[in-house]
Amino acid sequence: MSAVYPPSHTPGPEVDVHGGHHDHGAHDDHGAHDDHHHHQPTGWQRWLYATNHKDIGTLYLLFAFTMLMVGGVLALLIRAELFQPGLQIVNPELFNQLTTMHGLIMVFGAIMPAFVGFANWMIPLQIGASDMAFARMNNFSFWLMIPAAIMLVTSFFMPGGAPAAGWTLYAPLTLQMGPSMDTSIFAMHILGASSIMGSINIIVTILNMRAPGMTLMKMPMFVWTWLITAYLLIAVMPVLAGAITMTLTDRHFGTSFFNPAGGGDPVMYQHIFWFFGHPEVYIMILPAFGIISQIVPAFSRKKLFGYTSMVYAVAAIAILSFIVWAHHMFTTGMPVTGQLFFMYATMLISVPTAVKIFNWVATMWRGSMTFETPMLFAVGFIFVFTMGGFTGLILSMAPIDTQLQDTYYVVAHFHYVLVAGSLFSMFAGYYYWAPKWNGVMYSELRGKIHFWGSLVFFNITFFPMHFLGLAGMPRRYADYPMQFADFNMLASIGAFGFGLMQVYFFVFVVWPGMRGHGAPAPQKPWDGAEGLEWEVPSPAPFHTFENPPKLDATATRVIG
Predict the structure, then answer these.
(1) Which of 233, 242, 527, 535 has the fewest CB atoms within 10 Å distance of its CB?
(2) Torsion of CA 34, 35, 39, 41, to 10 degrees
(3) Same domain flag for 447 and 362
């Protein structure tokens, strides 16, 4: 919208699609024309006042990578402490602060903003829209994240240190924390507001600004997964806001929502939190499914197997995610009937997830496959995500979960789906789309070093944790008996290797790409790729699709 309208004109969505005024003429070619002005902003103004979806997507991705590094440093402090039995580096209190902030920063500061960055960059390109629907709100929803991130990171330097209640912020621990608990609650509120605004923007863009001829069932899978994810975010972020607001009033305003002394119930907090928290884990994986569903067909040189079933599977996952929350709470003393319900519902949600994995495998079956870096990460994703899915299925069974709850088995499980799931899919997406973003090809050798290093070190880090959990090592403990020493040492070595691979990725892959070093990328660098994003030059010009593209019958190519 912003890219094509002067400020006096506020179009309806119908006009929006059809391109609007062309009063900027020659500026288009220079790729630096700001939305409503006739001068070209450069330097800091281009980024501070950014309303172009590509610039905002870049900001989100850089922010997310920065937070990934911050959260990664916290993780390495945790692993350094656990390298040997006994207390080496940090005391137990600081250890719990590290585990808490590592979780919060990775979930709300790294994974979610990174997927929003992909959404900002790719959704308008994939549906033939000129920009996101609400360009200024897009800018605002990004810049809100900066003060929130600062509040989270600086909480370590407040009196009493950072919150040490675990990333789930369970009562009654949260009612006993120092002032940093309040700043963290405020930060979560701001991040939630940012997520809701971003989601509204994505939904309106997808529903109102598709190019003529692109029906919903012709949309790329990435767009579908984000449409459903955005609805999930709008549904559950207010639930989190409610839970942390009740925590805040318990702390300062004399309420007793979670304080048993005043008639409250700490288990109620868990119900509210996980009603947000379980759809949240699907918010962090559905866009990953979308990215993988773009890459696997491209490098198999085949259409995606079972497109319609994929769309319905994503919708089924989203709907079922609302009725499985209490599988996180099998040990809270819920009645057997409740345990059975949540056990069966959780096992049921693995069915649409399996549909997706079967469809990816069927897409590759007898395809003309090549293994460039995006495909390596996509296949690596399928492999490790499936392992994480199986451990999730094991944990869904109430009698087994009673034994494994709060052990390192659970830590292994969710890192297999979140690191190997979300993160590997983002790497796949970066290698797949970066030529379109930067206009240069990355080094295939460096990409493969990044892939194999990440895959090997990831498994060295998290695979031993399954055995630690089965042997009974609890989470969030700074010390452990000697019997767990070897696997912990192995995991710590792997963690440092994995961290170094991500630094390598930025220094040797991302940074040269941002500087424009590398062979010039063709308009369509992957011969099996389909979709509107490959119909624009590389790098993608500052303004794309000012006149909506005319699509062929498959809605993947521009006619004429």
Answers:
(1) 527
(2) -30
(3) yes
Three-state DSSP at 168 gives coil
- Residue 474 in 3-state DSSP? strand
What DSSP element (H or E) covers 526? none
Q: Is pLDDT of 17 > 70?
A: no
Does 88 reside within a domain? Answer: no
* Active-site residue set: 102, 131, 167, 194-195, 278, 280, 282, 293, 327-328, 353, 356, 475
Q: Residue 34: its pLDDT value, please?
A: 42
Where do we find the tokens 């605004």?
Answer: 197
CB-based contacts of 12, cutoff 8 Å, min separation 6: none
pLDDT more than 90, % of the chain = 89
Name the residue with higher pLDDT: 318 or 15: 318
The whole-number pLDDT of residue 556 equals 83
pLDDT (mean) for 354-383: 97
CATH of the domain at 388: 1.20.210.10
Residue 303 has pLDDT above 90, yes or no: yes
pLDDT band at 560 (very low <50, low <70, confident <90, very high): low
Q: Does residue 91 sit within a domain?
A: no
Residue length of the chain: 560
Lowest mean per-residue pLDDT among 13-27, 41-55, 252-266, 300-314: 13-27
To which residue do tokens 């559950």 refer?
A: 236
Query: Which string of DSSP letters, residue by residue, matches 214-268?
Result: --GGGS-HHHHHHHHHHHHHHHHHHHHHHHHHHHHHHHHS---SS-GGGT--HHH
Report yes or no on whether pTM surpasses 0.85: yes
Q: Which tens digits make up the pLDDT trace of 492-505?
A: 999 999 999 999 99
Do 330 and 419 lie in a common domain?
A: yes
Which two structure tokens, joined as six digits, stand for 267?
A: 């288990």
Examine residue 539 and state whether it is found in any structural domain, yes or no: no
Domain assignment present for residue 520? The answer is: yes
Question: Is the same domain home to 262 and 320?
Answer: no
> Which of these, 339, 316, 312, lies nearest to 328 by C-alpha position?
339
- The answer to whether residues 355 and 249 belong to one domain is no
| Structural domain boundaries enclosing 434 | 285-472+496-529
Tokens 């299925």 sit on residue? 393
Q: What is the mean pLDDT of the chain?
A: 92
The number of folded domains in the chain is: 2
Give the pLDDT of residue 553.
Answer: 85
Paired with 520 in beta bridges are 440
Is residue 354 located within the same domain as residue 258?
no
Q: Is the dihedral of CA 6, 10, 15, 16 positive or negative?
A: positive
Same domain, yes or no, for 204 and 119?
A: yes
Rounded Cα–Cα distance for residues 130 and 19 (Å): 7
Q: Rounded distance, CA 501 to CA 426, Å?
A: 15
CA distance 283 to 236: 10
Are residue 134 and residue 19 in the same domain, yes or no?
Answer: yes
* CA distances, 495 to each of 118, 153, 250, 489 (Å): 26, 21, 38, 10
